[in-house]
Each structure stands twice: as structure tokens, then as C-alpha cells.
Amino acid sequence: MSRMRTLFRDGRVHTPADPSATAMLVDGDTIAWLGPTADAPTVTGGRVDRVVDLDGALVTPAFVDAHVHTTATGFTLRGLNLAGTTSRTAVLDAVAAHAATLPADAIVIGHGWDESGWIDQRTPTAAELDRAGGGRGVYLSRACVHAALVSSGLLTAPVRAAAGYDASGWLRRDAHHLVREVAFGSVTHAQILDAQRAALTHAASLGIASVHECGGPGTSGEADFVAALSHGDGYPQVFGLWGEPNAAAKAKELGAVGAAGDLYADGALGARTAHLRSAYLDGGDGEHGHGYLSVQQVTAHLVDCAVHGVQGGFHAIGDQAIATVLDGFAGAAKQVGLERIRAGRHRIEHVELLDKALIAGLVDYGIVASVQPAFDRLWGGEHGMYAQRLGRARSLASNPIGALAGVGVLLAFGSDSPVTDLDPWGTCRAAMRHHNPVQRIGAKAAFAAHTRGGWRAVGVDDEGVLNPGWSATFTVWDTTEDISEVLHTEDNPRARVTVLRGRPIHVGQGDGRREPR
Asked: In angstroms, rounded to a whole number, what is the distance separating the alpha carbons of residues 395 and 387?
């Protein structure tokens, strides 16, 4: 069967192969040629089957989001999104309005409240949620997804006995993990598939051709995780990361590329469960958060990954959690050898609180930093939530993207959606505009971290750049500006077409008219 050869011409092609390129020939799933339109192959020459006139549009590698929770993203897109609420009353009103649309036996699932920006930071109680939900169970995950507000009916005996339980209905740690499983366990398989498709379709419309699904116990169940990997043609490619200790063989069985992602070494700053060397300023006396893993457990997990030949990784936000993980890397290197550890291209998600010694550890072990620049945009700086939790100095030192890039740590950008929105252009801008000028990076470095960096983070080294002979994975944008010009504005261009290895996964309304041959 012959392959379709399509010439995209009269555009602005972002490629290192030819900075002046205005045309690109795609042969099936591969880029066959790049260069000026005047030098392009022609239909009459027999090398082209179809021509697409770009009218000056920008063509770039498609984005990769390196940390996503697909099902939760879909539910947030279609359901109860509390990100814009500004008070306890606003949350309760939103719950009541949404609950009224649901069956009487449904569980109300919502996400996104963040009390740190409210004038009155008191949150709804379990009893108040009982009333707002009309007697239905209510589960509302905090923006960080490491705490939740829960109605009385979900506070079962196992939840009440678990670490992190509070009678107010604000749950953290193990209590939160237990109640999250109950809430999402009430959702049917059909609803899960529908939510995942909604999330992936939305991602493709934003120029995203691949996402890294971060699952594991306490985050999403096995059935949910396997479903996220099942959608195939017509959607962005999903790389699965299963975060369970000493479960490299299981990760492979589930279809994951790594026993990584949300394997929790600690929690989150918003929930005060990120594990810190110095105490939180606004928590209980001497509160340092919580570490879920010991050095020995980290070591054992990495050795298990080496034995099974899969990528390992951890969720680690606080400096104490990161130190524990790096000590575990040292232990694994002693057992299997440093080069074998480095070859594994293991990763740490978030890595928000780092000093020079910890950054050096990432370099020593060849660790990928899967980071979310939007965290600094939303919660960093001198007056944000991080400053409330940590103080000004630690807040400005958090998310040290510039320092990581400066010493050659491989960066992969993501959103942690639904923690922050799927917004790749905005994510790049956040890295360029870090609250701390020392931690800013340039437009090209930010764009590379959100494109090629995401592919390299899962061991794919021949994607993310428009090069002859490389995969035809790209987006056509409704702008004539280059990436630097786009990133120095406030407006995101519209994705006309997003293509994954030669197959369109998103076609904007009316864009089929741009094919004259």
C-alpha cells in the first residue's frame, strides 16, 4: 500500500535543519524534506500526492505534556471545576448547583478549590457539604490533589482510622487516598472512557500530541490506568507511568513504560504534606510534612527497575523528600553500578525545593526533572501560597528551572492536569517569567522542554524536532509569528491541525479548506 506524500508549503517551519524553511514534505509518517517553497518537490514531478497551502502559518513540533491525570482532567473539563471559587460559600453554592443535576445516589466529584487565595480561608465542613450535596456523597479535591473536602457519608471507619483524617472533612495522606478510591470507584467504566476521551481531545486541540499518564495506588486504579492507554488512533499518544513500589514487573504488565510517575515520596505544599527539612510557617508547631518512602525503599525500587529494564521514578516536592530519593539512588548505584542507573533515565516529578547539592545529585544520576512551571506562576513569588507556607526566601527559591537547565538536567514540562490547566504555551511563558529572575529560561529552551524534552523523558530520542527522516509529529498554528514572538505575547495561537506520526489527531473547524490539490 503506497503512502500519501503531502507537501505543506508557504508557511513558517520551525526546524534546525533550515532556519529559512517555508515548506515541509511528509511521506506517510516521516518528514522527507524541509526547505524553501521555491525548492520544494512538485506534484508534476511525481514526488507529491497532495499540497496544503499554509498561508504563512507557523509549523512546529507538537507539544508533549509530561505529567497528566487523564480521567480527572476529563471530569474537571465536563463537571464541577472549583478553580475559580473565592470563598467557602462559593464552593458550597457550586456543589449545590452541580448536585441538583445528578441522580440521588451519585457521588459529587469536584476539583480545584484553593483556600490560600481566599480572604477568609475557612473551608466547608463535612456537615455543610452534606447539605449542599442534598444528602449525596461529596468529594472535592484541593488544587494540589493531595487533600480533599469530604461529606460525612464518605467518612467510613477505615477513613477515620487512617493517617491524615480530620473530623472537619478535610482529609490528607492515607485518609485522602482511601476516600479518593471510594469516590472514583463510584464512576462507571463508560464514564471513565468518556472523560479520558474528552481530556485527550482537548489536549490535541491545544497542539499536544502525547501525554504521560501518571497513575498508581492512591492516584488512579489499575482499570482506569489501562483504559487511559487504550485509546489508540485519533488521540494523542499516552505513555503510562505506574507509581507503585517494587512493581516494575506489574508496570510492564499494565502497559506502562515506567514504574514511575506518582510514586509518592511525599505529598504537596498546598496540603502541607510535602516533606521539608525546615518546618512550615503556617502549619502546626514543627510541622515538616510527611515522607512516604525510606531510603531503603527507594533503593529497592530502583534495583527492581534495573532488573526488569524499566524506567523508575518518584514524586518528590520537598527538599527532605528529594534528599531521601537521592540517597536511595546512591544505594542503588552501589548495588547495580552508576552507569546502569544513569542509563535508566529515571525521573523525579515536580522537584520543587532544591539546593545546589540536590541539583548536583540529579546531574550525577542522570535524572530527568519532570516539572510544572505553572506552579510558580500560580503559587510562587513573594505573596503567593508558597510564601504563606514557606516564607519569601524559600518561595522564591522554589521550582529552580533556570538552575536545573543551567547544569544540563533534562527538563520535561507538564501541567499535572487537572492541578493546573493543559496550556503548553502558557507553561512555556511561566518558565520564562519565573517570579525569581535568576530561575528564568529563554523561549527556545522552554519550548524544547515542552516538546523534545517530553519525548526524551520516556526514552524516545527521535521525536520532538522537525528533521528530515524523523517522525512527522507537528502542529500547524494560526499565526505567522515564530515561537519566540508568540511566547513574548499574551495570546495563544489556535492549533489548525495537530499531527501524530503523519495522522491528524485534531483538525480545527474549517481548516480542511486549505488543501487545494
From this structure: 5
